[in-house]
Here is the input.
Amino acid sequence: MSRVYNFSAGPAVLPEEVLKEAAEEMLDYRGTGMSVMEMSHRSKAYETIIQEAEADIRDLMNIPDNYRVLFLQGGASQQFAMIPMNLMKNRVADYIVTGQWAKKAYQEACLYGRANKIASSEDKTFSYIPDCSDLPISEDADYVYICENNTIYGTKFKTLPNTKGKTLVSDVSSCFLSEPVDVTKYGLIYGGVQKNIGPAGVVIVIIREDLITEDVLPGTPTMLRYKIHADNKSLYNTPPAYGIYICGKVFKWLKKQGGLEAMKEYNERKAKVLYDFLDESKLFHGTVRREDRSLMNVPFVTGSEELDAEFVKEAAAAGFVNLKGHRTVGGMRASIYNAMPIEGVEKLVEFMKQFEARMG
Ligand SMILES: *Cc1c(COP(=O)(O)O)cnc(C)c1O
Here is the structure.
């Protein structure tokens, strides 16, 4: 068996320890004589799994009691619709468009009401985060929406927008559990787990209780109501049971690493290895405004499409895989999520140095 260094943006690398543990429990989960995949979601064993998962993420993120944690399906993209359907009471919402995912969320919200694009960085290919300290927030906005870490472009909000008292909704898919957050600053935080937490198929929604109401847009399907999932503790129907089990293991792994403070410190150290090299390299350079750089997704280019392609090919042959940039941006992107060890980034930089020397 040989594992590669997987720089995929998602589905992405998971902690080896977690995968091994899951493998050990595959045929017989702790004396139940069955895999978690084969288990009723109403069983005692599964109840413990999902309850521990919730308790552990609450612990990690220090989630206050007046917030609910929901384990849902449909990916992050389903939230693009679920959010307006449940929260757009006045049918008005403000969107800050900093990349493709925010743009898709904005376009989806336009189906349900007046979505206002109050800021955007599309003028410079989403390579920066706009100044959000004094935006024209709508008087009657139900919420202000951001995508906190822009997976494709490699930017991150370092300070949250001034929402002037309006509810903040944030897509944290690609920075979930990468650093501490103050949950009280948000009305709703959500993310697909396949970027930084677990296998595709689970989306986690952390929502303030007062936002969970019966008062949703007419025609909202039962399955797309936060209230139905909150009332049923994420077990209204069969949840993505195996995926939640793996997420639970990752939460325990994160706690063992020292929690989110420790992860932040580690992620900063890890990203610095790559950014420092990009800043000194004559061949490779980053594509994002320095102060907005993401700790999780690092896009870079050589300036030549042929060289980019050659680099991606040679890197893959050397065991550094999935470095090709998003199809809309080109170049390269290294996603260096929680589970990417620092050695992976150090070795990648070593390889980049050798490539540069050979091309020079
Ligand atoms: C990947 C991603 C999405 C889409 O996730 P799906 O689960 O495929 O719907 C949305 N937002 C962000 C920030 C992402 O990185």
About this structure: The chain has a mean pLDDT of 97. Residues 259-280 form the longest helix (22 residues). The pocket of pyridoxal-5'-phosphate is lined by residues 10, 75-77, 101, 147, 151, 171, 173-174, 192, 195 (CB under 6 Å). The chain has two domains: 16-256, 258-359.
